Predict the 3D structure of the following.
Amino acid sequence: MKRAGFTQRWLPILLLMPQLVIIAVFFYWPAAYGLRSSFFLQDPFGFSETFVGFGNYLTLMRSPSYLKSAGFTVIFSVLVTFLSLAIALILAVKADRVIRGAKTYRTLLMWVYAVAPPVAGVIGLIMFDQSWGPLVDFAALFGWDFVLGVNYFDTAFAMVVVSVWKQIPVNFIFFLSGLQSIPRSVREAALIDNRSASGRFWDVTFPLLAPTGFFLLITNITYSLFDTFGIIDTTVKGEPGNNPMTLVYKVYVDGFRGNDMGGSSAQSVILMVLVLLMTVFQFRLIERRIHYT
Amino acid sequence: MTRLSLAAAAALSMTTGAASAQTEITWWHAMGGALGDSLNQIATDFNASQSDYQITPVFKGSYEEALTAGIAAFRAGEHPNVLQVFDAGAATVIGAVGATIPVQDLMTQNGVDFDIEDYISGVRYFYADSDDKMIGMPFNSSSPIMYYNIDALEAAGVEAPATWEEFAETTAPALVEAGYIPLAQSHSPWIFVENFMSRHNLPFATNDNGYAGTDTEILVDTPELKAHWMALQDWEENGFYAWYGAGWDDNQAPFEEGEVAIWLGSSGSFGGLMQKDLPFEFSATYLPYWEAITTEPKQTFIGGASLFAMSGKSDEENAATAAFFEFLTSPEVQYAWHRETGYVPITTAAYDMAKEDGHYDRFPAAEVGIQQLSLPAGENTKGYRMGFYVQIRDVMNREFGRILSEGANVDDAFATIESESNALLARFAQTQN
């Protein structure tokens, strides 16, 4: 059998060029520049700089506030990813069984998807407002004196709630379509084998949802690490104070607000390495256990 | 018909010709809302006042965003002629010698009379270099003052306190009795650290508060400042002081709602408070001081921001910038800006004009900011100059949050602030080699 292909070598390269140029200009060049900056301490205007080797990295490793943000980022990401996946899965499984008014019900659940993260953050601010937020009044019923922006735990709680709320609809859409692509025959066969609904879910439905779940796991981790920026920014109102911060937000605070080019470049490089490791881990270890149909 | 259209075409080409002969300059600023309207009015008036120059103001977001946008644009060669930089960013801009043209040089080179003595004393040297040469033009200058709810103080049968001792012993207990939260304030680093230092004439940093060099160390781990914060922690426990987070508005709102009787804010907040038509009478007076520390309280630092003329522009554009600065500092413009916003007039001439016009007879509280800035100066009241100061304020805010919401130990918190700030200052010094 003859393989289909290009007869000349230059044509495919030429066709690839636009994409390669875009990647080089917008991804590799800034990344290389960031890597270089992380070894210097630089005047923001670019007039002078001092080479400090790994000084910026060592400063970060010794900084209790950086380590605290790192710890918070891990807890935050795990909570946001787990809760938004779990809640969306429950909603999708339940919505899948709804027969009457199914479309309206599903549309209502997807609605929040259209809300941009900073807007979600503003809505969160209103709900958790110190003097008239409805959720603050609700917390007060349980004797919880909720003060956003004052108490570290309360602010973290609000950030997690808003981030999860914002992410559920995306996960819901994917889980629902995943559920609907499971063949009817498989479900009916399972019904004969196992009478327990939860047993059927864990033995049949859940494994068949795994490809969707894996995809969502990656997108949700990325979301909780990076896309929650807008929510965090609006929740702390530009004055971080003693409030929790994720690592991405800290890059912004030190780099854009504080003009510490070297320090924030080092933070970005750390995040870059982290994402690289995570990607390798996900595709090497987790994907092997998943079977695509 | 043809003749008419020809004439019209000729007229059109003449007006476009005239427009292109105008020198256009841009001004990046961080004044939103009502302040932005007042600022745009200044630009419009300047453009109408003469025909050679045209200034275009552009709103760039918060103070931090405006500074970062200006720096990024400078590196790309796309920077504006005039950039507004706030107090905490002063060291970054003034440290980058060559990024800006010192205002004093710009003015004299373009034949504008400049005398630093024309500026009121509290404003004069804040944006100056170690040789007292003015680098940035003070624009919106304010000072922290004490606003009080007259109705609340009358109900409690007390006067506005002059000292913190009076507040703790007399004012606060009476206000609590009358059902009020006695005290709130909107900016802990600015009011309870920086201006604590100037009011009591205490050194804030080595190297003449940082003006004399970059190898500066901050001096906040001091008995006076810690005693103040320990008192504050006690007051919070007794219900004398309430803290609503690091956000400005969250702390101002309870005062406007009449829950809090005394609020420490900016003299620049005056215009906004007047517009809000509060359900009670309010007035303002000087920031209190501790009699235990000094019996001769001094003037305070200015807050707010200044305007920098950025370098790398043509002589014509620099002449336009100088003409704009001359217009901006004229008594009429300064008085109008002061009247509308509550920011202090920066020249003695403008202050005199406001007095003559009877502005302070109508609104006595409007004069408090400038009076406080005109109090006797001390060797530590000129200002401060510290790099990475935005981060230093962030460190302070973080530790103050821990003191006030987590009951953190004041000694530990100030030791942390001092060591983290000094590490930041040392890093900043390395960026300036």
In short: The beta strands of chain A are 40-42, 49-51. The mean pLDDT of chain A is 88.
